[in-house]
Design goal:
12 strands; eight-stranded mixed sheet
Length: 212
Amino acid sequence: MRLDHLSYAAGPDGLAATAEKIGSLLGGTFADGGIHPRFGTVNMTLALADGTYIEIVEALDHPASDKAPFGQAVKARSALGGGWLGWVVSVDDISVVEERLGRSAVAGNRHRPDGTELRWQQIGVNGTIADPQLPFFVQWDVAAELHPSAGADEGMSLACLEIAGDPQRVSEWLGETVEAPLEDVKVEWVAPHGTPGILAAQVQTPAGLIRI
């Protein structure tokens, strides 16, 4: 189990403008990630060191975004002006999580502009919707070189996550201590005074530490 990526819902200016704004702050360029047909969403991604990445995601005007929990979550966050949607951990065997949570994983896929198909299974989005401090889980079904973090600039890495929440609650959800998937990332826990979840991410860049 390890941190896989952070998800950020596009703001009112749309996907491309949100990605351009955050990319400019970080000194990086987001790549077109393609459409998630099962979820009714589309994303752009920025590869970071240590096998992680940031995605900017936007809901499409499509029935799937109204039916799929992930599409619903993206729509709801964007309707509030956009911002951090959640964090995602990668597991080698998602059946363990299925058994623990008592529910089945959902298959996901998207095609990059070059035609490459990425496939994965995910579970726990409803938990994230109910309690945004909680991550959801993915198991990638592609080779490591196709993971969205491939080709990252080693000078750009996630340095710190600021989360409004309770580490004990998150540990119970993960089935192990929250330090496990976040061992390489500093976490600042803040007692929530409102909606829990990611408050900010601090990214180490060649130009210094940038807080988003």
